[in-house]
Every structure is written in structure tokens, then in C-alpha cells.
UniProtKB/TrEMBL annotation:
<protein>
    <submittedName>
        <fullName>Four helix bundle protein</fullName>
    </submittedName>
</protein>
<dbReference type="Pfam" id="PF05635">
    <property type="entry name" value="23S_rRNA_IVP"/>
</dbReference>
<dbReference type="InterPro" id="IPR036583">
    <property type="entry name" value="23S_rRNA_IVS_sf"/>
</dbReference>
<dbReference type="InterPro" id="IPR012657">
    <property type="entry name" value="23S_rRNA-intervening_sequence"/>
</dbReference>
């Protein structure tokens, strides 16, 4: 089950962190950067869950790649927020952890797909 995946739980922790830091953003960013960051971070854990629930390895991998793309989007938005002075740190450690775990999940799913097709 996806709730048992370490990558899913790390992505959920990242989601909570992003929601907390964006609470302090200026009001004029509510429908801009705040909204984009929150959508991107929710997309990471959502696509991990959706991928885990899919029937084939190929479909799982597709959703894991979408999650990774959303994570890259979030990293860009965090960098913009840092450069604008909205945050004091980039959440780099948290995003790197999710990247590593997600890449591991992608690679292990690819291996299972190869084994299953042999």
C-alpha cells in the first residue's frame, strides 16, 4: 500500500513544510506563488499514491515521473521564494530526500518490470 512507502511519507512531510512556510508569504502571492507551490507539492505525493495504485509497472513509472516533475517545479518555486526573501532556507534537504527516494522507487519498479517481462 502506498501509505507504507517511505517516499510517500517523506513527500507528505515536505507538503506540510511547504504549507507552513507559505503561510507567512505576502498576501499578494496567495494566488500566485503560494498557490503554485501548494499545487506542486500536493502533486508529488498524489502522483506517488496514484502510481502505486496502478495495475502495471509501466503506468506506475509514468506517475512516478510526473511526481518527479512536480518536485522539480517545486524546487524552482522554492528558489524563487528564497531569492525574493520570502523564505530563509530552500528546503533543499527535504526535496533532495524525496528525489533520492523517488528515483529509487522508479529504478526498483523498472527492475520489477524487466523481471516480470522475462
Amino acid at each position: 500500500m502506498f501509505k507504507d512507502l517511505k517516499v510517500y511519507n517523506s513527500a507528505m512531510d515536505l507538503c506540510v513544510s511547504v504549507y507552513k512556510i507559505t503561510d507567512s508569504f505576502p498576501g499578494h502571492e496567495l494566488f500566485g506563488l503560494v498557490s503554485q507551490m501548494r499545487r506542486a507539492v500536493v502533486s508529488v505525493s498524489s502522483n506517488i499514491a496514484e502510481g502505486a495504485g496502478r495495475g502495471s509497472y509501466r503506468e506506475q513509472i509514468r506517475f512516478y515521473y510526473i511526481a518527479r516533475g512536480s518536485l522539480a517545479e517545486l524546487e524552482t518555486q522554492l528558489e524563487i521564494s528564497f531569492r525574493l526573501g520570502y523564505v530563509e532556507y530552500r528546503l533543499h534537504t527535504e526535496t533532495r530526500l524525496v528525489y533520492r527516494l523517488l528515483n529509487g522507487l522508479i529504478n526498483s519498479t523498472k527492475k520489477m518490470m524487466l523481471v516480470d517481462s522475462a
